[in-house]
What we know:
This protein is an alpha+beta fold. It folds into two domains: 4-102, Winged helix-like DNA-binding domain superfamily/Winged helix DNA-binding domain (Arc Repressor Mutant, subunit A), CATH 1.10.10; 133-329, no CATH class. The chain has 15 helices and 13 strands. It has helices at residues 4-12, 21-28, 31-39, 44-51, 55-68, 88-96, 103-115, 117-127, 155-161, 171-176, 191-199, 207-220, 247-253, 277-281, 311-315, and strands at residues 71-76, 79-84, 133-135, 165-169, 184-189, 202-204, 223-227, 235-239, 258-259, 263-267, 287-291, 297-301, 321-325. The strands form four sheets. Strands 6-4-5-8-7-3-9 form a seven-stranded mixed beta sheet, sandwiched between helices. Strands 1-2 form a two-stranded antiparallel ribbon. A two-stranded antiparallel sheet has the order 10-13. α4 packs across α5 (55-68). The longest helix has 14 residues, at 55-68. It is elongated, with a radius of gyration of 22 Å. 41% of the residues are buried.
Amino acid sequence: MSNDIYEMMTEKIMLKGSTIIPRLFRMIVDESEAELMMAMPGTPAELAETLSRPVAQVEEMCALLYQKGTAFKSFKGSTVGYKMCRDMIQFHDATILWKDATREFHDLWQQFIETEWPDFARFYTQMLDKPFTRIIPVESSVASEKQQILDADSARRMINDAQVVAVTKCTCRVIAHKCDHPLEACIQLGNSARYAIDRGSGRGIDKAEALRILDEVETAGLVHVTMNSADGGHFICNCCSCCCQALPLMISEGLEISAPSRFMASVDVDLCDGCFLCRDRCVFNALADGQNTDGMVITTVIGEKCLGCGLCHSACPTGAITLKETRPIEFIPS
């Protein structure tokens, strides 16, 4: 099999033209494993027939690829099948959490994020109708009067509604290690939690611990991000502005990699005392100088920059900042 198979795999996960992704594939799978991945999806028996290999050998290889994070289980009734990682996000998140991943492998992933990913991100934001992820607010920041908080707006409701909950390390901080923010901070829900527990890339937790993690990351100033779907998310990422693959590009270029929440910060000019603690908290540079009726310099909100994360509220000692509902329920894709 030609080494070109690694370029074929790269094209299959929609990263054609990358010079680093083929190297990552080459580091984690040999050519025999790569050939098996390219033959997926299928059950081990089906894949064995396609490749004229012994079923037992294919079963063992599929199980290893599942552990590596390059293949995922699929189910046809009671029969377990396997499919190749479908895109960069799956390849990134799953392989970084492989227990045998080396520092060299992690460093190459970070090289991709810093050098090649920005161009791919710009391309994807132009091609996709809606961002795949969405910011959800710190729930206490949402002003309660005449506003409807959906389950899809609330990290706490997502956790309480989930049948299974797990926590994994933040893959972005694992490879970037640019800050000391909490590492074990990505909450997995439902099938994503089952996957993390089954593979050993995360640990099962109860809902009380998941809620404690939410409190911890909110205190640390991290941004809640989930799937951009009204059906709820399979995960709640808690993102920093330095290591995240999305937030730095959203901040520096305004790329719509992640959709905003349905809310926007609002400042009560009578309560704001001009301490500006909120400005240190706002990762999106959405706060600026304003004036109250007495001419005192206070905080004002730059509407086009505010993504409705609510972190400014959690820093405000006077309760002057709350989130107001500015986008309709239909803003969240069904």
